[in-house]
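Shift notes (night). Ran D-alanine--D-alanine ligase while the centrifuge was going.
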Amino acid sequence: MSATNAGKVAVLMGGRSAEREVSLMSGQGVLSALQAEGVNAHAFDPAERELSELKRDGFDRCFIALHGRFGEDGTVQGALELLGIPYTGSGVMASSIAMDKTMTKRVWLAEGLPTPAYVLVRRAQLATVSVAQLVETLGLPMIVKPAREGSSIGVSKVLHAQDVPAALAAAAQCDADILCEQCIVGDEVTCPVLGEGDTARALPIIRIVAPEGNYDYQNKYFTNDTQYLVPSGLPALEEAAIEALVVKAYQVLGCRGWGRIDVMIDAATRQPYLLEINTSPGMTGHSLVPMSARAAGISYEVLCSQLLASAALDNAQESLG
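Came back to this:
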């Protein structure tokens, strides 16, 4: 795709989710990159403007740099479907399922794909939930997180049973659904995927080494203490197997455009476990998709242009050439 046939492009950024700050950083990076490529691109913050203005102002397509709710969960995608404006990333259903970690795990398990054991706790059940039963089912340490939040917001790694109620309460502040999950101890990796269906392909795996194994919001975006290893240093056969698993996990959810899947590798068995998928990954200076793309010889600007070229509608499925 050349800048001349991209038309007028809105880079959707900001929004109303807990990840607004990160989205603004992502969006500014994408906007600058597209403008540097000669694209007629403009910033558009859905928290400050009605989406209907996209049609009124003559935008031809949207690059979604929104993260979290009201941007990554199928809601904006549905609005753009109604407006008839092609957009980057997954469609309505795939976005909605992928945003919900519990629904994602249900699909993966139904397809026979490995993901850590879990128990779903509703906010309304907090007063009656059995901590002892949770610990018996999932063991310790245990991961407790909101089912529909990103950027590690509201996530706790619980080492002791007495700390479970506080972790549940923290997650409940973010979501009515709380995902309690078996903690897999071992290597943490992430793998971006580009494309759709049979053409989907994995980009190089990144191995994440965070301070004390704590890859939280602060260590993701605002410190330089986390190490990102690409090449990952994993054995070649293991890396190839994880890439194949990640592409399959992406395909069964019906994703398109791009995504990034987080994986834990059990230190003892070397079994990889799928954690979650991001269908509108970060594009900040600390973000992992651009880092992986660079390792594959794809510059940030070219990556943004390629993603824009994949903009489509669920009900048209006609991407740009």
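The longest helix spans residues 20-36. The longest strand covers residues 186-194.
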